[in-house]
């Protein structure tokens, strides 16, 4: 059974040894295909994935299947380039109960230590993604003695709803895929429930 508290276990199961979070903002132009993030049967946002990248859509557990008072873990869409399994992870999701960038900041502070040991935010910057307010948090952390870089990006899709884009990878991996990761973040647009 997936619960909100099991998100970190779910993320760890997607790519052993990699835990983490995602994206800086710039523009470029690679070929891509659209992917819709759907939660509880409702389209929330769309983003583009580079044609040669793989993606995996996680389970979407109906609220009705959860014990009373329990919030299901959010559906996570994981994205990665071919051949990079185990050294990086990128994911996008809508955290339940997080309604603003301020809420997301507190959510990420609670989530960070579940994903990495001693995560340290080195930089935080307000940005815009397709005209929508966004905040980017980047830094470093460790897990099982290994160093990782992370970037969280929070995009306010509409009042009362945010999306999180996350990257975690070994040092230097973000730089290798920066263009594709930036394109992915810059492609996030709200759909029906995200407006």
Describe the fold and architecture.
It is built from four helices and ten strands; from the N terminus they run H-E-E-E-E-E-H-E-E-E-E-H-H-E. By secondary structure, it is an alpha+beta fold. The chain has a single domain (4-194), classed as Protein Transport Mog1p, Chain A (3-Layer(aba) Sandwich). Strand 1 (32-39) and strand 2 form a beta hairpin. The protein is globular and about 40 Å long. Mean pLDDT is 82; it is low at 1-30.
| CA distance, first residue to last residue | 30 Å
Q: How many strand elements?
A: 10
Shape: globular
Describe the largest sheet. 7 strands, antiparallel
Task: List the helices and strands in order.
Answer: HEEEEEHEEEEHHE
The oligomerization state is single chain
Assign the CATH superfamily. Mog1/PsbP, alpha/beta/alpha sandwich
Tell me the fraction of residues in β-strands, as a range: 35-45%
Output the CATH class name: Alpha Beta
Give the total of domains.
1
CATH names the topology as Protein Transport Mog1p, Chain A
CATH architecture verdict: 3-Layer(aba) Sandwich
Give helix % range: 10-25%
List the strand order in the largest sheet. 3-4-5-9-8-7-6
Rg calculated over all Cα atoms: 15 Å
Q: Work out the helix count.
A: 4
């Amino acid at each position: 059974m997936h619960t909100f508290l099991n998100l970190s276990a779910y993320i760890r199961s997607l790519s052993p040894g990699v835990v983490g979070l995602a994206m800086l903002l710039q523009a470029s132009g690679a070929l891509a295909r659209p992917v819709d993030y759907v939660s509880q049967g409702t389209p929330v946002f769309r983003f583009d994935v580079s044609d040669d990248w793989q993606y995996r859509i996680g389970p979407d557990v109906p609220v009705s299947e959860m014990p009373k008072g329990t919030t299901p873990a959010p559906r996570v869409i994981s994205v990665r380039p071919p051949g990079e399994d185990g050294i990086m992870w990128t994911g996008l999701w809508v955290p339940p109960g997080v309604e603003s960038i301020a809420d997301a900041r507190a959510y990420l502070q609670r989530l960070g230590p579940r994903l990495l040991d001693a995560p340290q935010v080195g930089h935080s910057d307000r940005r815009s993604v397709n005209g929508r307010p966004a905040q980017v948090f980047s830094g470093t952390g460790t897990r099982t003695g290994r160093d990782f870089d992370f970037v969280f990006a929070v995009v306010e899709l509409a009042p009362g709803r945010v999306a999180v884009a996350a990257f975690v990878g070994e040092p230097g991996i973000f730089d290798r895929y920066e263009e594709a990761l930036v394109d992915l973040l810059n492609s996030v647009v709200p759909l029906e429930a995200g407006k």
